[in-house]
Design goal:
mainly alpha, 118 residues
């Protein structure tokens, strides 16, 4: 495995973790405390930020591409929640995802100095 491939490790682990959380949510098994009082928006922003940051790192600093690759499936999932009896579709969730992703782009620039890496 090359160093370039190894950079995908944190992103893959984050995808697995958020997928497990999503499966629990679709099954209606999320703890009530995680769905009330705006906590879900914080979780959405955290998800958008985490996935975008790790994917930008894996893609050698292509942070805007990473942001797009993260937000498109999240938007599709948010829309598909309209078809679920245990989930609700909320544009505020997608906005929180996007804000988190934007924070990740800014954080990536601050941490790395802004450029793409080789």
């Amino acid at each position: 495995m090359t160093a370039r491939h190894a950079r995908f490790g944190p992103f893959v682990l984050a995808v697995v973790a958020f997928t497990v959380i999503s499966v629990f949510a679709y099954a209606g098994m999320m703890p009530r405390v995680l769905t009330m009082g705006g906590v879900d928006k914080i979780l959405h922003a955290t998800m958008g930020a985490t996935l975008t940051f790790f994917l930008a790192r894996a893609l050698s600093g292509k942070k805007w591409l990473a942001m797009a690759f993260v937000l498109v499936p999240l938007a599709i999932d948010e829309y598909l929640q309209r078809l679920s009896t245990s989930r609700s579709s909320d544009w505020g969730d997608l906005l929180a995802d996007a804000i988190g992703a934007l924070v990740a782009v800014i954080a990536y620039d601050v941490i790395t100095g802004g450029g793409e890496t080789k």
